[in-house]
Amino acid sequence: MATEAITKGWTRDQMAQRAAKELRDGYYVNLGIGIPTLVANHVPAAMTVTLQSENGMLGIGPFPYDDEVDPDLINAGKQTVSQLPQTSFFDSATSFSMIRGGHIDLAVLGGMEVSEKGDLANWMVPGKMIKGMGGAMDLVAGVKKIIVVMEHVSKGGDPKFIPECTLPLTGRNVVDMIITDLAVFQRPDHGSPFKLIEMAPDVTADEVRTKTSAQFTE
Predict the structure, then answer these.
(1) Distance separating alpha carbons of residues 31 and 106, to the nearest angstrom
(2) How far is CA 20 from the centre of its chain?
(3) Which pLDDT tens digit goes with each residue over 107-137?
(4) CA distance 190 to 85
(5) Which residues are marked as active site?
């Protein structure tokens, strides 16, 4: 009788839940497309966190239930979202002024590759059609802290936390924390190496090292 393989590590929702632990009361936060959008569902009830979207929304609520969907309320990833009593709307020029002006405390972004030096590649794969650059380059340049949430390896099994990025860069030396389905890496400043600070349940340090080609400390 065949048995199903047991998958170790955090689910996408658990990765978002781990990222939500980095939120602080009073923070203004931008959530990128993909797994980062799930962070909105894990903001602690007693904490005041204002979510900002570069398409012009400040004060994003959790994803709506089916009977609450308003097609005019979307985030930067074109997903329907909910609004809060304090929500405000504005044009993208004002939105990017907030980002470029250093008024956003934290951005949680997806990633295709992160280098051991903190470089991020997350906006395009050469040869594949893209709709546009989006706001990632502005976010990594203007936001105070950058967390990247991504799968630890690609669909082909290749490490995504690597010595040097091979894809077009979003920004150099910009990533402060990496959260994958296997582990969490952090560095205190942009001149220090990443340190392995946490692993998902049942994941060992040896497994993390095997699936990581970048250098890091423990």
Answers:
(1) 9
(2) 10
(3) 999 999 999 999 999 987 777 766 666 789 9
(4) 38
(5) 54
